Amino acid sequence: MSDDFPLRALHEVFSAIPDPRRRRGRRHPFPAILSLAFLGLVCRIREFATLQSWAAVHWELLQEPLGFNRRHPPHATTMSRALAQFSLADFQAAFGVWLLSLVDEEDLKVVAVDGKTACQGYEDGSPVHMLNVFAQRAKVVLAQWSVTGDKTNEPGELKLRLSSLLEDFPMIELLTGDAIFAQRPLAELLSGTTCDYLFQIKKNQGDMLDALETCFADRGEADAKEFDKKGVALKPVASGAIPRTPTTVETNCSSPTAASYSAWSVWSLSGGRKLFVM
């Protein structure tokens, strides 16, 4: 793989995005302009004039891999006009394809969903709340969506986006999240997919937590002999599938107790609803 492979791959996937410009007066390829603008954002360049100057400094390295065919980078006005018309949805889809060309699919099997607020995200200083899908092993954000209102709307946003997320990244096998996602509508939607989920359950969901503690009441307190010096469990910890009798699975996580104040719920199509006390 050549050193400039990521840049060439970026140009190739952006070639699938329709060029919104009229045929007359086109001087620079649209995929090349998109690629340059993307690199500028990665470098925290937000002004087209600054992007033009930056591209001129590095033009020898950028011109051929990005697909430009002229001696000088596009003018700031040219980029502004070209990028004012294209489809953001098409861009997101192409970006997902580009990510898949750079990472190992094994690193995308487990992803985390979490909401974060970016202070002063809008021009008027108002915060922007975003829902992110993060692949920890690959160290990349696979998807990011703006959430209307406060963080309580995160589960609803995930429901709306779940189908497209799994369509773009079919290798995802497990979706993890905090307690805000442990809701029946979202769980029912996930049960109809090939993706399992792992959501935390806390004391603010009292009935569900009581049911989990009752289910694992016979587990009792963890034996000190089950831990090595680093606090890692050496024996299996309890898990189970309602309404069947709890069984055990091998794990290297800390051993749970029946009095735990939080739990994790996993949906498995093959085994029904499985519960893990953490």
Give a structural overview.
The protein has 9 helices and 9 strands. Residues about 230-278 have low confidence and may be disordered. The chain is elongated and about 75 Å long. It has a 9-stranded mixed sheet. The chain has helices at about 5-15, 30-40, 50-55, 60-65, 75-85, 90-100, 155-170, 185-190, 205-215, and strands at about 110-120, 130-135, 140-145, 175, 195-200, 235-240, 245-250, 265-270, 270-275. Helix 1 (about 5-15) packs across helix 2 (about 30-40) and helix 7 runs parallel beside helix 8. It has about 280 residues and is α+β, with helices and mostly antiparallel strands. About 25% of the residues are buried. Helix content is about 35%, strand content about 20%. A hairpin with a 4-residue loop joins strand 2 (about 130-135) and strand 3 (about 140-145). It folds into 3 domains: about 5-100; about 105-185, Nucleotidyltransferase, domain 5; about 200-278, no CATH class. InterPro entries: ISAs1_transpos, Transposase_11-like, YbfD_N. This is H repeat-associated protein N-terminal domain-containing protein.
Provide a concise account of the structure shown.
This protein has 278 residues and is an alpha+beta fold. It contains nine helices and nine strands. The protein has three domains: 5-102; 103-187, 2-Layer Sandwich (Nucleotidyltransferase, domain 5), CATH 3.30.420; 202-278, no CATH class.
Features:
single chain, 278 residues, Nucleotidyltransferase, domain 5, 3 domains, 9-stranded mixed beta sheet, 9 helices, 35% helix, disordered C terminus, ISAs1_transpos, YbfD_N, Transposase_11-like, H repeat-associated protein N-terminal domain-containing protein
